[in-house]
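At this stage, I wrote out one protein's amino acid sequence and its backbone structure tokens, and that material follows here:
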Amino acid sequence: MSAAPQCSSPRSSSPLRVSGRRESDEPPHHGVNDGSGFPCRTHSFAKVDRHGRAVARDESLTEVLISKGVQEVNLITAIVSLGEATTHIAALLQNYIEHSYAGTQNSSGDEQLHLDIDCDNAVFQSVRDAGVFAVAASEETPEETDVSPPAPTSSASDDGPWYSVGFDPLDGSSIIDANFSVGSIFGIWPGKGLLGRTGREQAASVVSLYGPRTTLIIALPSKSRGGEGRGDLTFEVTLVEDRSRWEVSRGEVVLKPAKKVFAPGNLRAANDNAKYDALVKHWISERYTLRYTGGMVPDVYHMFAKSGGVFSNVSSEKARAKLRLLYEVAAMGLLVECAGGATTHEFEDKSVLDLVVDDLDRRLGVCFGSKDEVKKYKQFMFK
């Protein structure tokens, strides 16, 4: 294996193979990562794996997943690998001080930090090492990338079960300089491939939150818990004891039907979207509590912590939709619905879990939250 590279602008000469849509005024080739998973020589997370801590983390999260009804070994391995990626990203965040840009943009046109690329590599390394993933795609590497291992080292047979993962390795990098909480978002699909899938097909989804604590919130639909009367479940684990083990911190997360807390994303769209403007004014007039950071993960996560609320991200002609169905919306939507909440497309009365990933870069606006709050959203936006 070649030496690990320094952080730099990746893939400068190879053609970009992206099935994502481009806006008409976007450059034809955004800089993207290559999915190799090679860690940077300058920014290492190796210390968190020493003295048996990686093994202890693996064992503790495996035990938790079994206790929650997950029986399929490769699905357990898949989720545990994302726990490892989360641990490595947490170490990168704690030790990253440069806040320098790579000179490239991701598929949304956002300037990429070296940190974005390092976090992307940390996830790709973990999913490649897991031996159960066939395909991966991310915000920084927006193409279906083959991550399957050589046959002799694979823990999945030729017939599987295999998994594919779509992820955002660092959601909220634009607010990281303020030391706000940020996160990672992962959706796990059974089989090989991501195009043509719906969020409802996911076997699980995982969201990481990096703040004073490092936590994972995990969605397990009934089908991934062995069925037999086991319902959908959303629960949380926290990384404890010097990052050596995962411990259950919320055995079940449930969203109450109503709660007067709101997080209005893409608020500038209210300037030329009259319906959104009326909805925001309604929230204010009804004395809802505002909880908004500008990061999707902490804003939606707040609903899980407080058992309810509403998150919206609405577009307009002048304020385009930026959330991606594959990398962000589907995974977060599964968490919300497994917690008893509701989701909808911004303009269509349809759960985000029923939308097809017909394009790796498909973008949309959404509303997530308590069922009565999402119903109120529809009353304003769909009338």
